[in-house]
């Protein structure tokens, strides 16, 4: 992690001592002038990782741009829970058009701002994993390829949550969803499928790509701020646990996000112009089982006879990430 | 200024004169020459300030247009046929959001079988999407309608589709009067949006609406379109005052005085129909023509007024509502509710088939004698259809339908006649 050389974890907890950080590094949320972009009163479930991620990301972007921000939102939980007519939780100019076109709508906004000489106003597009990796993928790739001046943020909860937890191309192998049922010889989602959109984003040679989780909100803020320092197409893929869709306890959202990273299942890194520039190291590798067990979507792996082989295959995925990204400290 | 130019270039010049700020497009015949010309104007700086965005699909084209329009830019795109269908979800969305985007539809058939030639199936498929739809009769009118379209769209905060016949108009070189910039500026004030994405005054656009208010939101969309019934003729009049020619309006009658038979149609085919009607009039036949310029909103009262005195109407349309017959005809019938007129639907010109005066004389004659079938397919080659049906009866695996017809036709080269 490039921005925070010192670790302030208190013994037995993972709380970062905000007051111990110098002002520059303190969370935007700790500042009086935070914008509350996604304000209270929205209808997200308790412990919703997406709501948390969006709140931090957009407030950080507001902070970075001096509140000169417009957002385009794809259809999905974030859109639905934030704007039940006639209420809106958004304190920023915000538009929802369709499920699959947020990136293109944002391109249009950016073009309008350019032609009107409002270059100081910046544009964000945001959507869930389904709106990003599946139905919105064409528009996303087009926006990347044209290098339009848009930061796209994907809130990845690994399924179509808004429609009742169906499989997307970001759903992990073995996970139960409403369309990858925990039945049959190979319960849950199949192995060998899925789409790695951060890698695909990097293949477009865009200025900045990063992944983050809601377990490390400082890191998310840092990456959003950094992204706003670039012009052109940028992509941040945020891992956001969904208690409802994953069958997890509301209070475990942060824990699961941390475990996803610490197991190596979700590598956290930054890349500039197609090259990885930094990775968030794993403090000590944790077996994937610890991450899988608390989630009902993986419950079929832990029946009377644990599906050791399947768990081992998931462990292989984590190990491969650890190796590929060099996630382990040399010392560890 | 009078110029001898291609229809597409005339339209491109009209769009440029309207000072659009964002243009986005994806290529499809026969729309290409319009956006290519605009792209070049942006690239050379002749059209400035303007952003031209080459997008990756028509869905993206309309989506970029939505974003640009919502951010307060005057926005234009153009498409046709498969492209219009590919963007449908965003087409409805632009209307629902009330964004005054102007789009040219260079009318073309819809596949399968894939066909690049002209008919009105594409635009007709979107007749209920909430866009205003204007149909141009000539290239001059296409040019003029684009200037009117921006004014209308922005006044009402509704998107407007200007439909012009693919190839027949888009690719025809004709004399066109391209107006001076100062006149267009006098007619079309700068865009003042009703809603705009701006950090100075943050709004949420596109919120979810449930049963408690959805009907009201839809009603407003309808009421707004209906208000265009008044506005469209006024804008045509103002256009006449500034530019000195008649263009646009709701409907346009031709030789309707004492007409017993009225032919109703849209677009460029009105020229051939008028020629035919002139010849019939010379022979003393009491026949006239009603051209519909505004298909959405549909001018029920104007159509009724124009047809009320006739004995029969013949709708000649380049579209087919499979399973019922005519689309335009169904709308015209609604306008004539309670009147005792005989009505005929002629489906003509599908996929670019030429509509000749000879054929029109034949069918109009049959209609006047009240011998025409209710839904008639102009110049349908019945023997060929019969042979395909026979073959299908005889063999289960009779093969692809289109290939069967072509095989029967025995030639590979496309014939439009
Ligand atoms: C064209 C279209 N297809 C399907 C839907 C239905 N739909 C709405 S939201 C959604 C799921 C969203 O999933 P994701 O993008 O992952 O966001 P999440 O709700 O999980 O945050 C689906 C399938 C739609 N609105 N539009
Ligand atoms: S279903 Fe999941 S993503 Fe949607 S609001 Fe609930 S917790 Fe958040
Ligand atoms: Mg999702």
Looking at this protein, list some descriptive labels.
heterodimer, A: 332 residues, alpha/beta, Rossmann fold, 2 domains, eight-stranded mixed β-sheet, 11 helices, globular, B: 417 residues, 3 domains, seven-stranded mixed β-sheet, six-stranded mixed β-sheet, 15 helices, 16 strands, 42% helix, 18% strand, binds thiamine diphosphate, binds iron/sulfur cluster, binds magnesium ion
How would you describe this protein?
The complex is a heterodimer of chains A (332) and B (417). In chain A, β7 and β8 (275-279) form a beta hairpin. Chain A is of the alpha/beta class. In chain A, strands 2-1-3-4-6-5-7-8 form an 8-stranded mixed sheet, with helices on both faces. Chain A is 33% helix and 13% strand. Chain A has 2 domains: 1-27, no CATH class; 35-325, Rossmann fold (3-Layer(aba) Sandwich), CATH 3.40.50.970. Chain B has 417 residues and is an alpha/beta fold. Chain B folds into 3 domains: 2-243, Rossmann fold (3-Layer(aba) Sandwich), CATH 3.40.50.970; 251-377, Rossmann fold, CATH 3.40.50; 383-417, no CATH class. Helix content of chain B is 42%, strand content 18%. Chain B is built from 15 helices and 16 strands. Chain B has helices spanning 7-17, 32-44, 58-70, 81-86, 88-97, 121-125, 139-156, 181-187, 214-243, 269-282, 300-307, 328-335, 357-368, 382-394, 401-409; strands at residues 2-6, 22-25, 51-54, 75-79, 102-107, 132-135, 160-165, 173-177, 204-205, 251-254, 261-265, 287-292, 294-296, 312-317, 342-347, 375-377. In chain B, α13 links the parallel β15 and β16. Chain B is globular, with a radius of gyration of 22 Å. The mean pLDDT of chain B is 96. At the A-B interface, β1, β2, α3 and α5 of A face β3, α3, α5 and β9 of B. β2 (94-96) of chain A pairs parallel with β9 of chain B, so a sheet runs across the interface. The complex binds thiamine diphosphate, iron/sulfur cluster and magnesium ion (MG). Thiamine diphosphate binds at residues 50, 75-78, 99-100, 127-131, 155, 157, 160-163, 168 of chain A. Thiamine diphosphate (TPP) binds at residues 50, 75-78, 99-100, 127-131, 155, 157, 160-163, 168 of chain A.
């Amino acid at each position: 992690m490039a921005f925070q050389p010192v670790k302030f974890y208190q013994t037995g907890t993972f709380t970062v001592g905000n007051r111990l950080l110098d002002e520059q590094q303190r969370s935007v949320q700790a500042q009086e002038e935070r914008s509350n972009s996604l304000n209270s009163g929205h209808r997200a479930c308790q412990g919703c990782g997406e709501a948390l991620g969006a709140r931090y990301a957009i407030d950080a972007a507001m902070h970075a741009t001096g509140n000169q921000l417009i957002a385009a939102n794809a259809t999905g939980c974030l859109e639905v829970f934030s704007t039940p007519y006639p209420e809106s939780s958004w304190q920023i100019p915000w538009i929802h058009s369709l499920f699959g076109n947020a990136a293109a709508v944002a391109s249009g906004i950016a073009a309008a701002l350019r032609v009107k000489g409002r270059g100081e106003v910046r544009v964000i597009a945001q959507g869930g994993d389904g709106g990003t990796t599946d139905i919105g993928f064409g528009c996303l790739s087009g926006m990347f390829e044209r290098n339009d001046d848009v930061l796209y943020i994907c809130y990845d909860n690994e399924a179509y949550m808004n429609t009742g937890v169906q499989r997307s191309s970001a759903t992990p192998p073995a996970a139960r969803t409403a369309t990858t049922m925990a039945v049959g010889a190979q319960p849950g989602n199949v192995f060998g499928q899925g789409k790695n959109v951060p890698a695909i984003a990097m293949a477009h040679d865009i200025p900045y790509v990063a992944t983050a989780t809601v377990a490390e909100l400082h890191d998310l803020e840092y990456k959003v701020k950094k992204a706003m320092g670039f012009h052109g197409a940028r992509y941040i893929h945020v891992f956001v646990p969904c208690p409802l869709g994953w069958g997890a306890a509301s209070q475990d959202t942060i824990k699961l996000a941390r475990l996803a990273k610490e197991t190596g299942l979700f590598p956290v890194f930054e890349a500039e112009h197609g090259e990885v520039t930094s990775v968030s190291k794993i403090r000590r590798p944790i077996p994937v089982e610890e991450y899988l067990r608390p989630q009902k979507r993986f419950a079929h792996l832990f029946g009377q006879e644990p599906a050791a082989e399947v768990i081992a295959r998931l462990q292989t995925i984590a190990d491969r990430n650890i190796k590929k990204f060099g996630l382990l400290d040399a010392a560890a | 200024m009078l110029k001898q130019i291609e229809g597409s270039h005339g339209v491109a010049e009209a769009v440029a004169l309207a000072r659009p700020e964002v243009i986005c497009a994806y290529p499809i015949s026969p729309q290409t020459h319009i956006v290519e010309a605009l792209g070049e104007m942006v690239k050379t700086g002749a059209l400035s300030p303007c952003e031209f965005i080459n997008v990756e699909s028509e869905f993206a084209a309309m989506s970029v247009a939505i974003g640009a329009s919502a951010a307060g830019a005057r926005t234009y795109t153009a498409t046709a046929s498969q492209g219009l269908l590919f963007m449908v979800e965003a087409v409805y969305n632009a209307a629902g959001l009330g964004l005054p985007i102007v789009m040219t539809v260079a009318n073309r058939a819809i596949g399968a079988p894939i066909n690049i030639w002209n008919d009105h199936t594409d635009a007709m498929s979107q007749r209920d999407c909430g866009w205003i739809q204007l149909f141009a009769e000539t290239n001059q009118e296409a040019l003029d309608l684009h200037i009117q379209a921006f004014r209308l769209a922005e006044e009402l905060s509704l998107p407007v589709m200007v439909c012009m016949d693919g190839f027949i108009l888009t690719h025809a070189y004709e004399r066109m009067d391209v107006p001076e910039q100062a006149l267009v500026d006098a007619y079309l004030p700068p865009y003042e949006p009703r809603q705009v994405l701006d950090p100075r005054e943050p709004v949420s656009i596109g919120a979810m609406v449930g049963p408690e208010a959805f009907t009201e939101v839809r009603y407003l969309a309808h009421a707004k379109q209906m208000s265009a019934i008044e506005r469209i003729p006024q804008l045509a009049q103002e256009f006449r005052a500034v530019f000195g020619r008649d263009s646009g309006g709701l409907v346009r009658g031709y030789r309707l005085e004492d007409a017993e038979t009225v032919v109703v149609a849209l677009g460029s085919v009105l020229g051939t129909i008028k020629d035919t009607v002139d010849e019939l009039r010379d022979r003393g036949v009491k026949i006239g023509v009603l051209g519909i310029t505004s298909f959405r909103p549909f001018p029920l009262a104007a159509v009724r007024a124009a047809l009320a005195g006739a004995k029969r109407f013949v709708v000649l349309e380049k579209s087919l509502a499979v399973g019922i017959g005519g689309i335009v005809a169904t709308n015209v019938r609604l306008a004539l509710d309670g009147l005792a007129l005989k009505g005929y639907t002629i489906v003509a010109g599908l996929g670019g088939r030429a509509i000749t005066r000879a054929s029109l004389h034949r069918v109009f004659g049959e209609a006047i004698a009240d011998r025409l079938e209710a839904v008639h397919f102009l110049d349908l080659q019945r023997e060929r259809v019969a042979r395909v049906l026979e073959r299908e009866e005889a063999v289960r695996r009779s093969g692809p339908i289109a290939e069967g017809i072509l095989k029967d036709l025995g030639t590979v080269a496309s014939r439009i006649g």
